[in-house]
Amino acid sequence: MITFAIDQQITKLLIDSTKLTGIEPPLAWERFRMGERFAHAARGSAIKVVLVARPEMLDPERFGMTVARNRGLLANVFTSEAEALAWL
Fold it and tell me: Going by DSSP bridges, is the β-strand pair 74-78/12-16 parallel, antiparallel, or unpaired?
């Protein structure tokens, strides 16, 4: 999604994962890899990415988003679309 958005010159991306089912909350190493992959996909562009997820899927410390930010991606995660849109 991030690569496609960049290719289409989209600068703000909202990813809504609230309807996904059958997925357990990610472990710390999975959050780390997700943050790395998000940042790598952004390729240093100015895209702003926000993820909307169910509360049980979020890490209170936002570890995955911290990893992505530390690698140059402006990203955040919220439990409501309204909060996510306000952040964008």
Answer: unpaired
